[in-house]
Amino acid sequence: MKQFTLYLTIIILSIIIASVNIFAQCSMGSGGHKQHTQKTESHSEHKKIVTPSKGYAFINDDGMQEATITIKDGYHPNTIIVKKGIPLRLNFDLQEEGCTATISFKDFDVKKLLTPFDIATVEFTPDSSGSFTFACPMNMIEGTLLVKE
Ligand SMILES: [Cu+2]
User: Which CATH number goes with the domain that contains 142?
Assistant: First the structure.
């Protein structure tokens, strides 16, 4: 009988220890999850939030279509709407230093080095319609040239 009580005590103690273990693992698990969430949040801070903006080219006195884009934390506007087949003049007003000093329209084989805190002109004729990307050399900053028929 004494031996039976001893066994019972051992079993009850084992159950208590196991419960404490499970509880400890649960709270550790949720702690780890919290850390993961924090990591994700700090990672998303690196992503740039770009507000979409549209700009239309106008026909200038030379009969060219023309638009001005300011570069500072992105292209402003970041979508330029132009017409197909009319020579295009884009004025880039670069208001920062860094990799955006190179602009590239890879679909039109146009690449130009801009001067920080100055306006540079890029000229070409958009000879095909569609949506084309212009960007810095690493494609971190992107804009869209929308060529309409
Ligand atoms: Cu870049």
Answer: 2.60.40.420
Compute the average pLDDT of residues 63-71: 98
The radius of gyration computed from the CA coordinates of the chain, to the nearest angstrom, equals 31
Q: Is-contact 125 86, C-beta < 8 A?
A: yes
Q: How far is the CA of 2 from the centre of ligand 1 (A)?
A: 79
Cα of 29 from ligand 1 centre, angstroms: 39
**Number of domains the chain is built from:** 2
CA of 39 to the centre of ligand 1 (A): 24
pLDDT tens by residue, 34-60: 333 333 333 333 445 678 899 999 999
Residues paired with residue 65 on neighbouring β-strands, in sequence order? 59, 88
Structural domain includes residue 49: no
Instruction: State in Å: Cα 147 to ligand 1 middle.
Output: 24
Are 21 and 60 within one domain? no
